């Protein structure tokens, strides 16, 4: 397959997307401010961070903010997690009613104990029967809620641990339940985010699904930190698209540079000043949603990611993790001799 052929349109059920470079659901990171930046920087599709179906049914105010669509998100997905079919079905209906996303994803891969100990997240990789029932309940709820069929997708891990690789059974169960797409992060629950993602498993899943269910796309995630990583995953596994997670943190331009590599065979590195301007743009959007105090605390880790590779970056990051106001950020960057755009006039990340 040519590099140009690696970047292509993709369809998820009735949802047609012009490209196959997605922002993955990232807990504590892919809020609407960051998603908006990624859309500006070329992401074809975005996912919210995971939302508790139970919290939705209990009318938690925080879930409303997690699901809010960014103004430039013409299409996006809400990711839910849960283990009770009735709760997840109700959560699906509420998400469709309040957020009106074009897709709903079920998290069947989160390795965090407080999630899997409830039977949700990665616990579902070793409980395919429950996974099938959950997906089926979501598909029915989506069909009842809307006159347009909203696709239900599933993100899984490779298994519980190296002795229990259950990705095949999990994928089959999700598809049997009516899933319109499968994403595989080829690490086990036991690995968490350590070690190396086994990319070849994505290839095996893609081969299986493409042979039996040609209408269902397979997406890959894990260890995508550069355009070259994405190109290799698409070429080696024949998956239909890729999801950037940690690789997009501090570098939302990875979507545009990856597209350039796939289409043109080359890309231009993003100047550090342009990356920094994107950080200020993100802070501006966060202030709109959270207020200055919460936004500035949240931007500590995000500015540290944007500042990676800057001259004197270690000292800069040591100061950034203590900033609590916009003026403190201004002073830190000014002290490092770095440009500071006017916050209210931060240019779009293009």
Characterize this entry briefly.
The chain has helices at 3-6, 32-40, 53-57, 61-67, 85-98, 113-116, 128-145, 167-177, 199-212, 227-237, 254-264, 272-290, 292-306, 313-320, 326-335; strands at residues 10-12, 15-17, 21-23, 45-47, 51-52, 76-81, 103-108, 152-159, 181-188, 218-221, 241-244. It is of the alpha/beta class and 350 residues long.
The residue-averaged pLDDT reads 92
Give me the count of strands: 11
The main sheet orders its strands as 3-4-6-7-8-9-10-11
The largest sheet, given as strand count, sense and whether it forms a barrel, is: 8 strands, parallel, barrel
The CATH topology of the largest domain corresponds to: TIM Barrel
Query: Could you say which structural class the secondary elements and strand pairing correspond to?
Result: alpha/beta
Instruction: List the domain count as a whole number.
Output: 2
Distance between the termini: 29 Å
What do you see in this structure?
The model has no long low-confidence stretch (mean pLDDT 92). The protein is α/β, with parallel strands linked by helices and 350 residues long. It has two domains: 3-264, TIM Barrel, CATH 3.20.20.70; 272-345, no CATH class. 52% of the residues are buried. The strands form two sheets. The protein has an eight-stranded parallel beta barrel with strand order 3-4-6-7-8-9-10-11, surrounded by seven helices. The protein has helices at residues 3-6, 32-40, 53-57, 61-67, 85-98, 113-116, 128-145, 167-177, 199-212, 227-237, 254-264, 272-290, 292-306, 313-320, 326-335, and strands at 10-12, 15-17, 21-23, 45-47, 51-52, 76-81, 103-108, 152-159, 181-188, 218-221, 241-244. The radius of gyration is 20 Å and the shape is globular.
